[in-house]
Design goal:
One of its GO terms (molecular function) is aldehyde dehydrogenase (NAD+) activity. InterPro entries: Ald_DH/histidinol_DH, Ald_DH_N, Aldehyde_DH_dom, ALDH7A1-like. The protein is an alpha/beta fold and about 290 residues long. The chain has helices at about 5-10, 25-30, 85-100, 105-125, 125-135, 140-160, 200-210, 225-240, 255-265, 275-285, and strands at about 50, 55, 60, 65-70, 75-80, 170, 175-180, 185-190, 215-220, 250, 270. It has a 6-stranded mixed sheet, sandwiched between helices. Helix 7 (about 200-210) links the parallel strand 8 and strand 9. Helix 4 packs antiparallel against helix 6 (about 140-160), helix 5 packs antiparallel against helix 8 and helix 9 (about 255-265) runs parallel beside helix 10 (about 275-285). The relative contact order is 0.17. Mean pLDDT is about 90; it is low at about 1-15 and about 15-20.
């Protein structure tokens, strides 16, 4: 069994399996930070009391409901419904379909979409950085700086989208040449840790996108609101450009979703950030399917 690292278990222990959808007494809901006037800015990110943690072109989720807490004062912020295994399966299928469209778009055009994502993040940098500080526990300047990291890699990726080339090599055959061309690998799975809930995803996402790959993100359960907020920003850009939302999918969840990603041969490349202990387990699961890679 793949266990969460100890650092994550502090917050994960505060998750709750509810008997019915979103069933909580009004008294509890009123204590959520998102309902307090000083935290009204959270709604600028599209967050609510109850948030869906699965995105594949549409929002949903049939898994357990978790409450995320501010580590500074141990007060509940808001709730997120995680992905079930069925949600994961549906998301994988939609992401694979979206890849057929995304991979056919010329790299410079893909770079333009990434540029727009960077601009959208710039517009929300202060409020998103504040969420990083609130939910993860960093000081505000570092929370904002982490969003800036994502913006910076978007800028870098835009330039890179016009520089993806390969050498032309001499051939032994008269009148022929060997041309090296890079092709998209497919679906990139991205598993990120709680301590860098924005930047690490950004490093992976921006580069993967300009290369013609689609992404499936599973962030840490303790920073689920950040994952949802970032995905909402990206989803708006994709929607405005009439592109499939599943190009940048999200499945909030725990070890069951992470294990599924590691074992799934439809995930062509997996990026993992986390503890050494869990990383070794992920590596073994991925190695077991090397011969099945397509």
């Amino acid at each position: 069994m793949w266990r969460l690292p100890r650092a994550l278990c502090v917050h994960a222990a505060k998750t709750s399996k509810l008997p019915g959808p979103w069933s909580r007494p009004a008294a509890f809901m009123s204590t959520l930070l998102i309902n307090q006037p000083q935290y009204a800015w959270l709604k600028e990110l599209g967050l609510r009391e109850e948030n869906e943690g699965v995105y594949n072109g549409s929002w949903g989720g049939q898994g357990e409901v978790i409450t995320t807490y501010c580590p500074a004062n141990n007060e509940p912020i808001a709730r997120v419904r995680q992905a079930s295994v069925a949600d994961y399966e549906e998301t994988i299928k939609k992401a694979r379909e979206a890849w057929k469209i995304w991979a056919d778009i010329p790299a410079p055009k893909r770079g333009e979409i990434v540029r727009q994502i960077g601009d959208a993040l710039r517009e929300k940098i202060q409020v998103l950085g504040s969420l990083v500080s609130l939910e993860m526990g960093k000081i505000l300047v570092e929370g904002v700086g982490e969003v800036q990291e994502y913006v910076d890699i978007c800028d870098y990726a835009v330039g890179l989208s016009r520089m993806i080339g390969g050498p032309i090599l001499p051939s032994e055959r008269p009148g022929h040449a060997l041309i090296e061309q890079w092709n998209p690998v497919g679906l990139v799975g991205i598993i990120t840790a709680f301590n860098f809930p924005v930047a690490v995803y950004g490093w992976n996402n921006a580069i993967a996108m300009i290369c013609g790959n689609v992404c499936l993100w599973k962030g840490a359960p303790t920073t689920s609101l950040i994952s949802v907020a970032v995905t909402k920003i990206i989803a708006k850009v994709l929607e405005d450009n009439k592109l499939p939302g599943a190009i940048c999918s999200l499945t909030c969840g725990g070890a069951d979703i992470g294990t599924a990603m590691a074992k799934d041969e439809r995930v062509n490349l997996l990026s993992f950030t986390g503890s050494t202990q869990v990383g070794k387990q992920v590596a073994l699961m991925v190695q077991e399917r090397f011969e099945q890679w397509k």
